[in-house]
Amino acid sequence: MAKVLMKGNEAVGAAAIKAGCRYFFGYPITPQNEVPEYMSKELPKVGGVFLQAESEVAAINMVYGAAGAGARVMTSSSSPGISLKQEGISYIAGAELPCVIVNMMRGGPGLGSIQAAQADYFQATRGGGNGDYRHIVYAPASIQETVDIMMEAFDIADIYRIPVMILGDGMIGQMMEAVEFKEYVPRELPEKDWATSGTKEMKSPRVVNSLYLEPELLQEHNVNLEKKHKIIEEKEVRYEATGIEDAEVVCVAYGTTARVAKNAIDDLAKEGIKVGLIRPITLWPFPHEAFDKINPQAKGLLTIEMSMGQMIDDVKIASNGRWPVAFEGKTGGLVPSSVDVVNAVKKMIGGAK
Amino acid sequence: MSTIVYKKTKALNDTQFHYCPGCTHGIIHKLIGESLVELGVLGEAIGVASVGCSALCYKYFNCDVQQAAHGRAPAVATGIKRVRPENVVFTLQGDGDLASIGAAEIVHAAHRGEKITTIFVNNAIYGMTGGQMAPTTLIGQKATTAPEGRTEEHSGKPLKIAEMLATIDGAKYVERVSVHNPAAVRKAKKAIKRAFQCQLEGKGFAIVEVLSTCPTNWGMTPVNALGWVESDMIPYYPLGNLRDFEEAK
Fold first, then answer.
1. Residue A353 has pLDDT above 70, yes or no
2. Rounded to whole angstroms, how far apart are CA atoms A254 and A140?
3. What residues of B are in contact with residue A211 (Cβ under 8 Å)?
4. What is A240-349's CATH topology?
5. Which of A217, A334, B209, B246 is an S-S bond match for A212, by CB 3.0 to 4.6 Å?
6. What is the separation of C-alpha A3 from the centre of its chain, rounded to a whole number of angstroms?
């Protein structure tokens, strides 16, 4: 298929529909409004339903109901709206329902700003809702990658019966790039033999639920969830790693900041400074294995984020004391420049703190 | 030869209710179940349990049920109904759930005219959490968070949900009933069945507010609790139909 020029947010909607998503429940918030706008226009054409909810809280609970009824369903929002969805995400994870949630991140905390940021890493990877749960987090760095991941995300959600979050930012949502929509080829998916569809007085009643009042049963439920999480950690880790085996410094960045890092790495290469890159594509599960391939003599790792430093915690865990870990970042809607990254790398090589 | 004159509806299974002695919640279960069976839609029914004493209702109904977060049952029901318009979707919610934390969800489900049926159990208190004040707690009524009794000055007057929702165009059937005596139970049954009929005919949102007892948290005997519904609740929460889909045409 030929490439088309598309805005990130609209590409998200187009990819979702191609992947068979037929239900969208959302609420307006900048900078992701083009997702619900696109869906309101396009879903009815394919027999789907777009519904603007009264709040993000309601929207995620509509997703719960639709997912529990067996539908391929999604919602999208941006940081403060995603905060409101956390209750529902915890229930969806607890009830083991599949769905896709898009977060086009903006600056925080609170109302923050409407400019792009990466300050929801903790919330996305640790869970802003209550309880021992996890959900998969993809962090695409281009619109093409966003589209490719969207097409797979629904299948992944179905396979593991887990919420899948696409963690973009205002930059990914608002910019335009050429994209190619590949043909959606569904994987072999398990039957949704748990979905509420009415018993027809033939089947025994199905219950979609996250309540387990007996402690032993709730523990068993959590143990089973953890088993599922371990399988996801084994099978679903994705990352891009370049030049890390012989690097002096390795940059670690995802999404928009990974693009900045790549520019800086090219500039540093021209000066003869070897810098590698680890770009996590899944933030959870985090690509710990990538760090085992880093040059043991590297001078350090540089985490680059549009935040005050959140992923750096995972980078420190992954490096496990093997290398010093430094941070370069901007926040509030500002984006670090490649010059910032070049200077930070030089500072590390020079031995400065 | 003996003849069977009464038996438990097949819409309920044999699990023993967790409801306290004297609580009328069990009667409400029965009325919902009988209505579904009489309308021939038990096999199409998908219930939505809420949070509070009704949270565990999925244990008792012989139909599919989704358990929702506190107050969110109308949103969950919306998601289900939009995916499966051919199914019969209902929520069972208490007054803490519906009138307090879920006020936005119920108002907007009514506002959109969602083709769902809500059975709203109003016992003027938070039952499951142990007797805290609800938006529906009467003036002067004692609660664990209103130890001297509710006052208008501090907490406002109790919220009249049926009257409030009856102002919304999308709400096509709104009625308040009680289950404190056999005559009232018969009327309640009629209303609940009609609220499902409203959905079956695709008219819009339907709600039946059912005044219910909570002897445990009211600190009353079951008999006195039934009397209190009549002497104190009904004068403030008058029974009757507020909207019917025939006249709403």
1. no
2. 8
3. 55-56, 67
4. Rossmann fold (3.40.50)
5. A217
6. 24
Starting at the edge strand found earlier in the chain, the sheet holding A207-208 runs A207-208, B64-67, B45-49, B88-94, B117-122, B205-211, B171-178, B240-243
Average of per-residue pLDDT values in chain A: 97
User: How far does the CA of residue A199 sit from the closest CA of chain B (Å)?
Assistant: 5
Residues of B engaging A, defined by a Cβ cutoff of 8 Å: 42-46, 48-49, 55-56, 58, 61-69, 72, 75-84, 87-88, 104-105, 107-108, 111
**pLDDT band of A352, cuts 50, 70, 90:** very low
Q: Tell me, yes or no, if the two domains A4-235 and A240-349 fold the same way.
A: yes
CA distance B116 to A18: 30
Instruction: Name the residue facing B76 among A49, A64, A205 (closest C-beta).
Output: A64
> A13: which 2 tokens?
């909607």
Residue pair A54/B108 in contact (Cβ under 8 Å)? The answer is yes
Q: What is the side-by-side strand order in the sheet with A73-77?
A: A49-52, A23-26, A73-77, A99-105, A163-169, A136-138, A282-284
Q: Name every chain A residue with its beta carbon within 8 A of the beta carbon of B44.
A: 198, 200
Interface of A with B (CB under 8 A): 23, 25, 49, 51, 53-55, 57-59, 61-71, 73, 87-88, 91, 95, 196-202, 205-211, 213
**Of residues B43, B56, B105, nearest to A200 (C-beta):** B43
Angle at A68 between CA A67 and CA A72, to 5 degrees: 25
Q: Do B77 and A91 touch (CB under 8 A)?
A: no
Task: Output DSSP code: residue A143.
Answer: H
A28: preceding bond cis by omega (within 30 degrees): no
Interacting residues of A272 by C-beta distance below 8 A, sequence separation 6+? none
Residue environment code for A3-36, b if the CB has 16+ CB neighbours within 10 A, otherwise e: eeebbbbbbbbbbbbbbbbbbbbbbebbbbbbbb
- CATH architecture of the domain covering B25-243: 3-Layer(aba) Sandwich (3.40)
> Is A65 close to B43, i.e. CB distance below 8 A?
no
Q: Do A207 and B84 touch (CB under 8 A)?
A: no
Domain boundaries, chain B: 25-243
> Helix, strand, coil proportions of chain B in percent (round to 5)?
40, 20, 40
Closest CA of chain A from B153, distance in Å: 30
Question: Domain limits of chain A?
Answer: 4-235, 240-349
Q: What's the CATH class of domain A4-235?
A: alpha beta
Q: What order do you get walking across the sheet with A325-329 strand by strand? A: A239-242, A275-280, A249-252, A300-305, A325-329
pLDDT along chain B (249 residues), means of 10: 92 96 97 98 98 95 98 98 98 98 98 98 97 98 97 98 98 98 98 98 98 98 98 98 81
Q: What is the pTM of this model?
A: 0.97
DSSP annotation of A221? H
Give the tokens for residue B215: 């002897």
Q: Which amino acid is at B133?
A: M
Which of A54, A210, A213 is the closest to B104 by Cβ? Answer: A54
CB B135 within 8 A of CB B158: yes
